[in-house]
Amino acid sequence: MRRPKTVMFPRYALWQLLLLVLCAHAGASRADEPEPYRIQPGDVLMVSVWKEQDLMSEVLVRPDGGMSFALVGDVRAAGRTIEELRTLVDERLSKFIPDPSVTIAIKQIGGNRVYVIGKVNRPGEFPFSQPIDVMQALSLAGGATSFAGLDDIQILRREGGKQTARRFRYSDVERGRQLDQNILLKSGDTVVVP
User: Fold this and answer.
1) Which CATH number is 44-108 given?
2) Of the N and C termini of the chain, which has fewer Cβ atoms inside 10 Å?
3) Which pairing describes strands 124-127 and 153-159: parallel, antiparallel, or unpaired?
């Protein structure tokens, strides 16, 4: 009786395979990480510079997205992450203070708001501090009334001065179908329940 041939992998091939699996796993775990928070108009920031008592203050991000800070002047804060803004303030302060150590923290989130209107139990404006999707926004609004057109819900979004509408069919999502329409809402989005 003949023995079946066994295939031998060189050791380096096994190591390459193991390395490939580990790299794929590391890439997948990074994809699961949430996107960093982006500053919005209406947010209140606490800005301080280490060993500079006079350079500590609460700063309101204006409706135009800008903010003002001593020695830094006017900078655009909206749309940036905390780290991006900290780096910018650090660079501008370095003209006046050698090696400044800037700390920026969000004291109050006031800019992230979505709106739910129409045939819901509690229409209105809803602030959020972490990403929410359409179903969660409807839940915040107390759910739909019995007369709501659940399969004709629209999500209105304004980007770059242009408004778009996206259809949302509640019954599909409720049944676990076409879940891609249960999008994460952005600040300023309006969910319209006819």
Assistant:
1) 3.30.1950.10
2) N
3) unpaired
